[in-house]
Each structure stands twice: as C-alpha cells, then as structure tokens.
Amino acid sequence: MLKIKVITDSSAGFSKEEAEKYNVVVLPLTLSYDGKDYLDGIDITTDEFYKLFFENQEKKGLAKLDVLGLFNKDEKGFPKTSMVTPAVFEDTFNKVISEGYVPVVLPISKKLSGTYQSACIAKDMLEDDNIIVEDSASALGAVKVMIKSLLQKEYETKEDVIKEIDYLKKHVNFYAVPETLAYLAKGGRLGKFSARVGNFLHFKPVIQLDFEGVLVPIDRPRGLKHAFKAVSDYLNDNPIDFNYPCEFGYSTKEENVNALIEACKPNLNGDYTKAQISPVVGAHVGPGASALFYIAKNEVNKKLKD
Q1: C-alpha–C-alpha distance, residues 79 and 165, integer Å
Q2: CATH code for the structural domain at 4-28+82-170
C-alpha cells in the first residue's frame, strides 16, 4: 500500500486542527499588507486579518464605489500574496520522504497562484519521479474538499493516486456569492465596469470556476436571497455526491452562509461542514461572501463564459 502525504498551501483553507486530523502539510503563503508581512495562519489568524484589512478599507474608502463607478486609484492598501518558494518545497519533500511517505502536492489552480510551479521546480531539483505534483485547477475550499476526498481511499500505485485526482478535478464544483463586487474588481478578478453596474443595480453574481481554474460569474440575480436560491437551483443540474465531503464557506458574515445553507436545504441529503475562507482568498471576495464546495455526482461542465 502506498503511503502518501498531501502538501498544499494555506489558500486551501485548512485550519490547524483539520491539517492535523487529515495529516496534511500546509505551507503558509505570505500576506503583505500595510507595510508588513504575515505568514498566513502563523503570524496572524483569519479573524485578525479580516478585521485589520476590511476595517482599514472602510476607513480609507477603498472598498466603496461612488455613483459614477469611479475607483480610488491608490490601491496600495490592497494585500499582496507571495507563493511558497521552491526551496521550501525542497525541504518539505525531503522531510516527507524521510518519514516514509510519497509527497503529493495539490495546490490551488496554477492560473491563480505560482505555488504549483514552485513545487514543479523543487521536484526537478530533487530528480525524484515518485513525487506527485498535480494542478488542482480549482480554488478556495474546493481544493480542501478535493484533498479530503483523496484521503478517503487507499492506493497501490502512484498512477492510482493520479487517476483519483483526475476524477476529482472533473467532479469538483463550487458556487460562490460575494456580498459586494468591489473587492473582486480591485483585485483584478472582475472587470471594473461589471463591478460598477453590479453594485449600482444590487446584483449578487453567482460565481463558478471554469476548467482552467478561473473565476467566472454565471448568473446575476438581484439581492442575496435570489442569489442563494439560484445556487440551490444549480444543484439540480450538478447534484452533490455525499459519499465525499461537502463544505460551506464564508469570509466574515456567518449569517450569510447560514442563509445559503437554508436555501440549499432541499438538495442537502447528507452531511456537510461549515468553515471560514482563508484570508488569502477572502481579501479578494470581500466581507460577507458565501460559498459551497463539493464533489458532484456527474462531471461538471466547466467550459464557462462570462
């Protein structure tokens, strides 16, 4: 039987307790904000970072759009993230291998982060073909759901592991609903024109991930209540497979994700958990964002167009 140990970065959203429970190595990204650097989850907690960041944004007015949709051009207040370096991966690989495990790296999409490339460089440096580095082509808590699902089974060979990851990539799905579009726009995840119009008309887009791991708004209901109902309706086409983990996520307002859960109740026929989204991602989706991450019964069509 192959002994594997999964390695990911902190954007996957594993808490310290979850990482210990699932025996997952979580490498912290560096959050740079307001002239200071923080190791995600080590130097600053999720709640501490959200409080620091969102309160400062409100004070400076950087998160607000005026009626003309004009952005403050000074975006120095927006946090930056630094990927895990190849050197850190090399040290981690050596440690994991010395413990008798096969390293399996499953980070967020290479379209959203350079962590995948860092892991590939470290693998090449060690010249060890037994190390598995796979692009999840996903993001947020969807990567966490993939990792938990992967660890439910046992594997005989490296090829078996890769085959299971390929299955999960085709079936993993998530729907996210931001409360405001300003942060997605300012972080470069959404066109500023779309953000201006959306905020002015009170649209709350339902966001999905395409096959390359890019965030795409697939629906634009007006108001959170209608957006949450839209997510529940989408589950009729992409039903949840409760043989795998299912998780609801939120950035700052638990009452919003509770409302999403309530709206999805007709399609919740199994167990699910609720957790806070990593600040690395939460800074881009903004306060009040809610999401659902799961493995679908069918292959999910991710060839999406905005």
Answers
A1: 31
A2: 3.40.50.10170
